[in-house]
Amino acid sequence: MRLILLGAPGAGKGTVAKLLTQLDGSVQISTGDILRGAVAAGTELGLKAKEAMNSGGLVSDDLIMGIMEERLQEPDCAKGFLLDGFPRTIPQAEALKGLLTKLGIELDFTVEIDVPRDVILDRLTTRRTCSNSACQAIYNVKSNPPKQEGVCDKCGSPVIQRDDETEEAISKRLDTYDEMTAPLVGFYKNEGNLLTVSATDSQEVLKAIQDKLAG
């Protein structure tokens, strides 16, 4: 399968992507992952991205598209891919459309995971992450707390609330999403290949996607 997953931070894109990869071996691709991969591989584009990130600037669309072009041609993408949180803007969506045409790749469709803002705020402000960078296990103080409060079940490191997961920080991230990324829903609707799933349960989202793929 070849899908784009859209949705606000905390809508569950990453969780749904992981469930989908288990179905047919499609690979989950997020912009952060491909940037880190390119930097680690030391490719020419990766070195340019590293320079931009180290200076605290944004990585340009041209650079991201170049890295995306390299990534989509890697052998593991032959089975399919799930673009998690990319594209983020209309110019990126247009550039991606051109890139896929150039590579002869056809998308199945784009999925919008629509979750109410209050649910996302509750979900993210109660999320906790293992402080060990090699572990990064995720917990939720309400629905999935660690067995021992404040301690990771897997590696025993302290479990923390990330700076970008306070209510103030999340509200700001959601406002940015609404301003920059939400217009993509209209873009893909016009393309005629948008599936909107209004559900807070990842299994419901998975079923809706499977039904559409089967249909």
Q: What would you note in describing this structure?
A:
The protein has 215 residues and is of the alpha/beta class. The protein has a single domain (2-26, 80-214), classed as Rossmann fold (3-Layer(aba) Sandwich), CATH 3.40.50. The chain has helices at 13-24, 31-41, 44-54, 61-72, 90-103, 117-125, 167-181, 183-191, 202-214; strands at 2-6, 27-30, 81-84, 109-114, 127-130, 138-140, 159-160, 194-198. The strands form 2 sheets. It has a 5-stranded parallel β-sheet with strand order 2-3-1-4-8, sandwiched between helices. Strands 6-5-7 form a 3-stranded antiparallel β-sheet. It is globular and about 50 Å long.
Quick rundown:
It contains nine helices and eight strands.
Q: Which properties best describe this structure?
A:
215 residues; alpha/beta; Rossmann fold; 5-stranded parallel β-sheet; 9 helices; 15% strand; globular
Helix content: 40-55%
Task: Output the CATH homologous superfamily.
Answer: P-loop containing nucleotide triphosphate hydrolases
Order of strands across the widest beta sheet? 2-3-1-4-8
- Listing every helix as H and every strand as E from the N terminus to the C terminus, the arrangement reads EHEHHHEHEHEEEHHEH
Q: Under the CATH scheme, which architecture would be assigned?
A: 3-Layer(aba) Sandwich
